[in-house]
Specification:
Helices cover 70% and strands 2% of the residues. With 368 residues, the protein is an all-alpha fold. It folds into three domains: 116 residues, no CATH class; 114 residues; 67 residues. A two-stranded antiparallel sheet has the order 1-2.
Amino acid sequence: MNKETYLMLADHIARQFLENPSLDLNELVAQTAREYSMNSEQRNILINEVNRAVFQKLFETHPDKTVEFPIAKPEIVDKLLKGEPVATEKTASFIQEEEINEEDYLLDDLYNPFFETLEKEASAPNLTYEIDVSKTKHIQFQKIANELMQKSEEVQASLMKLATVEQQLREVLAELKSVGLKENELVAILRQNNVPQEAIEYVRRIYSQVQPKPVELKKKASLKDAYEITQLVKKASEQGNATALNSVKKRIAQYDLNSLEQAMLKLGSMNEISGTQWYRLKSEVAKLTGQYSPESTAELLSKVAELADEYIEAEKTFGQFFKIASALKKFVKQNPDFEEYANVYFTKTAKIFKRSMREILARKGCLK
């Protein structure tokens, strides 16, 4: 959010006042303040903006450095909001150009409470964009515009996250390729995990691009090796010595883990140690050496499904962004007076819009 909300509201009130001199400027401000549930500080900001807007519009046609008009006043606006009687001002008040002090109202800490209220409205669930005749047009416009800016920030975050996700996905798929997992096997597993078809297609495209991760070949374990390692594991476990366990891990890392496990099973030494402890040791060594077991492969496949879900979530965010942009465009088409304001928001989000579209097309295989 930014201070453009106040500028737009003030411009709307100034136009109403100048187009119909019979209207009371204080009443116009009070009506808007009521619609937005403004507090005292927020009303003062709006009053300053309204007086400035009226002054500038009059100054354009009467460049004599002194402009007369009955300015909006905080005390009168407060009375109108409370329903208290207000004496009619018959004499015009004066406002000089130098009396308008930006420091009185262009403060972010004053704007923030009002902007946060609008943000909560804009981010409410099931937000609809159909015209609500019970509210003024500028409230409807600002609600959609605020949602567009909020969603554009979410899209930026999604774009950054998606780049990280894709890099992680490439690394995981390269590891799965190195253990000989075929594309059709990968697809079947993802379908079993209820991964959406669109995400599966995305994963398949990445899988076809990556190269298998190089794996260092380890020596095959003999029965003698299996016996010695079993004894080392038992001794380290009995002592509860972390240094001894690290030494065992280094010894285990010299062998192909699957061949070592097969040798231990054949020897019958697996009964001499805790199965839980062995699988923990095996898993830790596998991660250190880049070796794979059914357990580690399952973990990698689970990671693929998780990353595919991240891709789907990012696409949902993009879709919501495009939907809101379309809603704002439709609103402006129905209300041409807001075109100038809308262009400010479209200009701010144009780069995000283009980048989002390019990212989606690229991931759907439409761009090289």
